[in-house]
Amino acid sequence: MKKVLDEGKLILIAIPVLIWTLLPIYHLFVLSISTQESMLAGRLWPEKPTLQNFQIVFNQQHYYLTNFWLQLFNSFLIAIATGLLTLFIATCAAFAISRLKAPGGRSIMNFALATYLIPAAFLAIPMYKAMGTFGLLNTRIALILAMVALASPYAIWVLKQASDKLPKELDEAAIMDGANSLQLFRLVYLPLMKPSMVVIGIYALLLAWNEYLYAFLLLSSERAVPLAVGLGLFLSADDAPWNLLMTAGLIYAIPPAVIYYGFRKNMVSGLTAGAVKS
Amino acid sequence: MTTAAMAPPAMASSDATSGQARDRVFWGVLMLAPYLLVFAVMVVYPVAYGLWLGLNWQSYKALFADPIFVRTLVNTVVFLFIAVNLKFLMALFLSGFFVQQRAWVRFMLVLFILPWAVPSIPTILSFRVMLNPENGMINQQLFHWFGIVEGPGWLTDPTLAFASSILVHIWKSLPFWTLILVTGRLAIAQDLYEAASVDGANKWQQFRFITWPSLATLYVTSTLLSMIWTLGDFNSVYLLTGGGPGDLNHVLATLGIRYMRNNNLDLGIASIICAMPLILPMVWFMVKRLSKGAE
Fold this sequence. Notes:
heterodimer, A: mainly alpha, 13 helices, B: mainly alpha, MetI-like fold, 81% helix, disordered N terminus
């Protein structure tokens, strides 16, 4: 009896939590299969579910969607470039700080941490001005560089912590065998760091894919912006076709969600362990 | 070469060591170089440039004369206080739910982290459409079930719009912090609870004397980190209401952009600099804490 009661209590908590969590996502999905009329009627389930919206989006048959494929491509390009560049920079830096004990490594780590902690929204305008003086405004390179700068500090920190956990004896043994620093990096460090590197690569990739503010500040032409900003363009009109917006938004949300759930075990432990360790 | 060959063995080995040391320093500096370059170009230079632009005393006068700015300061503090506390009370409660060892609860956790796993732009826009006072699903359903002809102006009434932004912010960040606290709870030794229940402690006493003391440090660190991130939440406000209606609902994270879009860059920079006394102490504290934890 007590067991049933306990289960009942848990279910009473579970139902509102599930509604709260899923409602906006459900709404996104419902609108993506709704016609304009049933959307405006605010139905919980469309009268005649349709895939027509997807057809319109894929064929770019609406004013707001003229550059859908190009913007989707931009999103991929920017995310992958950010992921790879961040991975390269952070892996090298973490190796230098953690294994080679490079001079000044500790202070660099602290500066990087401070950059990570200062909210990106407050660095956006200075970075925008700086990009202007570099003449990089409205180029995808500007956004990639900005995202690398934002992703690297945390990446270095997580990789450094993972690297600190590798036994010192490995390095000593390799050095005894006459390995130089570069060989140590390639033959000992990289193979052992692979799991953390996967997590960090994905972290940077998702950060760039999900970014809105920097993308919309640094890029202005509709052909240069990633899909995130493309979606934001729908906001410029009050009577925008919300169902098309939600359809494009659903397509935009799927790749990161798939990656996230594909690597869920690694992501949750890797990122939460790094995020709060007191 | 020849000197090394002639030198006594001890010398040769110290030569090799210093050669190795030089090799380490060389590669250490070289491998730090890419990050230092990015840091210098993308962080140090922009910040210095921003500070230099911020030296204009006039813009601070203009800033404090702007009623929107003063309103924004108040908004930011209120947003921070309500969002962080509400989020953590919910996370604390829900972490107690999600540590239950049941298959369906564990499955629910997978669904529960969706808001965190899905990018925020489509979901915030989904909220925006859903909360639309005229055609949004919420008000249409209120009409359908309860006959409410004019539903609440979720995004048009200043107070409600502000509350909606807080709600969206919590929706997005709650899963992450719940997960953190779940991890914290799972680290508590189970036999403590068994011993306590043998001694007749009730659920509240178990929470008060076992769970809370074990979680307190994590809770405080997390709260602080979440405060910093909440301060920087641009999307929940900007994409949901655009800081509106009537620019009444800006927070410091969105105000700079508003000034910039009004071609008032100096005020934008000044408003960011004004946010620093709020942010930097927290950042400094967290850097100390995190770098100590990393040792």
